[in-house]
Request: fold
Amino acid sequence: MLKNPIPKVTNKLQYRAIGIVNGRFIPHDSEKLNRGYLTDNKGEKVETVVLGKALSLIKKHIDLKKSYFWIVYPKNKNTQNLHLQVAGIWDPYQLNDFPNDYSKTNFSKLLEELDLKDNYFSVRGALVFVNTQRNEVVIKICSASKLKNLKNKNFKLVIKGELSLELLNSFVSLDVIRDGNSLKLIDYEVIEKNISKKN
Reply:
């Protein structure tokens, strides 16, 4: 069974921002593997931190000289400074129960079977701002965590693209692609209009 790096949505109004990026993780410090950057196959670098659960995977299973498909959460303050948080690694062979025949490995083909591709992000949240001049939209993502004291529970993502002002405060599901340090809107679906009245 091929494990999907970006699971199907379980709830109509499920907030999320998750993506998959192929590249090499290069830590700033070989003693501390939790901070560094991902370098993709074009040589573009994205600031990256590794979350706790993925850190042990990196220490045990990952050869830092190789490229992997990383499951990441995106963060940014504008369209120029994407920051990634590594949540896991998608390796259907090493980390799943697949026949271990690397000669037939074509991860891009496997991703296509799942309707995914390198640098794809699924973003679901409330459309809170539209800047028509700059061709940008801002999506607010709320954490599903029940912990009230969690810092950065809710955050906003700035995405290049156009959505109608009429959709403000609607819950939208976006297909987004990473382009360098920017996130670009490819496609969208309105899940529910005017959700702000309920929140």
In short: The longest helix spans residues 52-61. The radius of gyration is 17 Å. Helices lie at 52-61, 107-113.
